[in-house]
Amino acid sequence: MGIQIDVVVGHPVDDEVERVLGLAEAVGEPVTVTFLWEGRAEAERAVLVPAATLALWEHWAPTAYPGGEAGEEGRVMAEEPELAHPAEFGAFTLFRRRAGGRTAVARDGVVVAELLAPDGAHWLQEKARDVRQGFMDPKQKAAFEEFLARQTSLDDQ
Question: 82: phi > 0 → left, psi -120 to 50 → alpha, else beta; which?
C-alpha cells in the first residue's frame, strides 16, 4: 500500500516527522510509517493517509472497520492512548483521538492526514474499491438498461 518509510522519532523537535507528514501530503498517497518512540519498547506502525484520500475511502466503504478484529500489527495502535497534549512537529500538530485510535494530523488548523492502523487502512481501502467498482451513476445505469432492452433474448436466437 503506497510508500513504505521507517521513521525514528527521538525527540518531539525532530524534523523527521515533519518531513514524512509533508511527503504524505505532497504525494497524496498513503505512507506506511514505523515510529520508534523514545521510551517505548515496541515500534508503532501506522499508515498516514492524506485527508482527501481518506474522505474518498470513507465515502465508498459501506461500514466502519471492525476494530475488535485487528491483527497483531494493529495491537499497538488499538491500545487506549493516554491523554496528552497535542504533539507538535514543525508546522504539523498531531491530535490523537481516544476513541478509535486514529491520530489526526493538522497544519494551520486544517486536518491534512490521519494516522490509521495498517489493518484498518488496508481494510478501508479494499472495501472502498470493491463498492466503487460495483457502482453505476444514474445516467450510466439508465444507458445500460436501455442497452439491455435492445438486446435480443437468447430464445429468439
Answer: beta
